[in-house]
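Aim 2, interim progress: modelling of the S-adenosylmethionine-bound target.
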Amino acid sequence: MAAAAAAPALSFPTTLHPPLHQHPRRRRRRRGAEPPACVYSERGITFDPGSAFYRSDSAAGRDLAVLAATLHRRRLRRPDPSAPFLCLDAMCGCGVRALRYLAQAGADFVWANDASDALRPVIVNNLSRFERAAAPEAMARRWVVSHLDATRLLAERFLRREYFDVIDVDSFGGDAAYIRAALLALRIGGLLYLTSTDWRSARGYGSRSSLSSYGAYIRPVPYPNEVGLRMLIGGAVREAAILGFHITPLFSYYAYHGPIFRVMVQLCYGKQDGISNYGFICHCKSCGQSRTFGFDELGQITCGCADKTDPSSITVVGPLWIGPLHDTTFLTEMLSLATEWGWANTIENGVTLEKLLDTMIEESDSRLPPGYIRLDEIASRAKVNSPPLGTLINSLRKEGYAACRSHIGANAIKTSCPIDACLEVAREIRNLR
Ligand SMILES: C[S@@+](CC[C@H](N)C(=O)[O-])C[C@H]1O[C@@H](n2cnc3c(N)ncnc32)[C@H](O)[C@@H]1O
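Predicted structure of the complex, ligand included:
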């Protein structure tokens, strides 16, 4: 795709999300007859999900991946500029991600893999239909389809020293089992897109499972979905450190449907001194304050509030990622690209990318500590009615604190303001009215 051009729109006939009673697979058909194609569309790219697991709700997560992969491709400075830009969709379902990396992110070559070989006709059909329409004269295929266990495929590519620029792992449940193999098969500087739907571990209802999968002991806190994202990043931090690298989170995205936790991390050269931004979050139920602690403070974890005497009021989770959830510069460039392509203002499956990315950019302020506070908690602790979200954020900013909405908690704020001062600001807002 040309650098400044809009994302290509294809001319396949489009039937958007047919109602269930009209779904082609539900109609009676003659034995042996080919099922009619049920064509879906994402940002102008059409495909047939066939019998694969496909959620149209996850389109925003795929939009973010395409924007990130495109930026990464544009930013690349390789010793060999002719080296192809390679993307792997390690658990591809119907191949929609592979298709979008090929069609929209400008990948030179995509590898679409799914353990289920029953999906082969669906994946091949989607990729070849695109290629025929986009470049009818092309002699060489720009994709390959395989049906291997993802770990085996990743390990094989690593052993052959064939590395990818982008690896997308979108499994059912958690991704922990694939992180190390995926990092091995990734080029240094490459992007790894991880997904987890293991909300029980992420929210602290399966502490032993989060410990065995991600090395983090997670217990319930008032901002469990942010902790889920931090646990996923923390897992990648730990695996990268074991391999002698480090990672930088480019963005973290929680979506309510599913629910789904997604993080895009970049593999960076060399081990960091110790593991920075990897530690513990301590939440005090008594005063509502959260704090972060490094490994060198283990044994000294306590809350500074008056109720120091009650150790049961403190919940400690970790080790996990305690740094910023996103990279501000990268997200700002993603938003510019979404605007350039006309994606920013359109609502797709209930998500407006501009609104989402704006909130994520605000969340990436490095002054903001982990966690968020819900307005009803502020109201109940301050013993006032809930202050309006925007007014509270503006007042906190006027006081010199970082404050913003959270893309994760709808009625919540993230702020660097200590809880006592925040309650005071909420009271002032209510008393002034
Ligand atoms: C959540 S679906 C993928 C959806 C797809 N990425 C999308 O965006 O529509 C997970 C897919 O992973 C495949 N899968 C599960 N375990 C796998 C494994 N170990 N290796 C490769 N594929 C696997 C399943 O067959 C399934 O199609």
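The chain has a mean pLDDT of 88. The chain has two domains: 36-278+326-361, 372-433.
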